[in-house]
Structures are given as C-alpha cells and as structure tokens.
Amino acid sequence: MAFKVLNVDWGSEKHRLSKIRERVFVYEWRIPKDQEFDTLDGVAFHVLLVDDNGNEVATGRITPAGEIGRIAVMPHFRNQEVYQTLFKALLSIAEQCGLTDVSVQCELEGVEYYQQQGFRPVGHVYMDAGVPRQRMLCNLTDFTLKKVELTH
Predict the structure, then answer these.
(1) Ranges for the N-acetyltransferase domain (predicted)?
(2) Burial code of 111-127, b = ≥16 C-beta within 10 A, e = fewer?
C-alpha cells in the first residue's frame, strides 16, 4: 500500500494529529492526556501519513532541537513500511533544518531496534508517565533504516 506523507502544521492539523495520538497513547498505552500533549507541539515539525483514501495512518514529530517523538501508528498499519516512511520523512526535515544529530526517547524494549538503526544510548534509564525509557542519539550520517522485526 502506498502512503502519502504530509508535512503539517500543528495549528491547522491539530485535530488529525490528536486523533491518532489519543488513540495510540491515551487509550491504548494509557498515557494521561495532559502528559501526551505539550508546548513542544506548537513549535515542532509534524508529519502525517495518510492512506490512498486520505485516512490517518500515522504521525510523528521532530522538535527544532532534533528530538524525534510522538510516533503514533494506528494498530492495523504497524509494519516496517509505515515506520520507515515516517522516519525518512522526519529525517528529511532534520536535514532541511541543518541538524547533524537527532534523538529519541524510547521504551527499553526499543533500545536494540534503535541501536540497529545507528542510535546509541545517552544517559541513564528514566521513568516517563510510568514507562521506563532511554534517550538515544544518532548522527544523521550514521542513521540507517535496517529491516528488523517490530515488536508492536
């Protein structure tokens, strides 16, 4: 299936981005809504993936400092192609912004996946909304999208 990548603004597409993030983070992962949405939404660059019918498939954001996050994929679209398309779009934004490094804050189960993509752990494991996480950093020249098994 082909997906269309839209670089969108939070102000004009908040309802579509929120719809996916609420479904995944608030209802599925049980992250408190007031912790899911923050002030970075207004300054971050957002990507929205839609299917051939224009239905929301996935979203993610990258902050001006290069932190990739809020990656939310609707359950029936969780596959390698969607994640790769989303990451390629976010990394393209990072390059356009002149960033040399990007970071993610992943769940502990995701550390190995991100290491296979060129990320390295930075700092200690910490708790965020009751979930243990690890900050990972990657130089854009080290990033590779390798096919690995997704655990979602």
Answers:
(1) 1-141
(2) bebbeebbbeeeeeeee
> Domains in the chain, ordered, with CATH?
4-142 (3.40.630.30)
Side-chain-side CA neighbours of residue 102 (13 Å): 27
Residue 127 token pair: 């708790």
Contact 49, 2 (CB under 8 A): no
Residues 28-57: tens digit of each pLDDT: 989 889 889 999 999 999 999 999 999 999
- Which residues have CB under 8 Å from 150's CB, separation 6+? 78, 79, 80, 83, 113
What six digits make up the tokens of 81?
Answer: 């192609």
CB 60 within 8 A of CB 68: yes
Cα 54 to Cα 12: distance, rounded to the nearest angstrom: 16
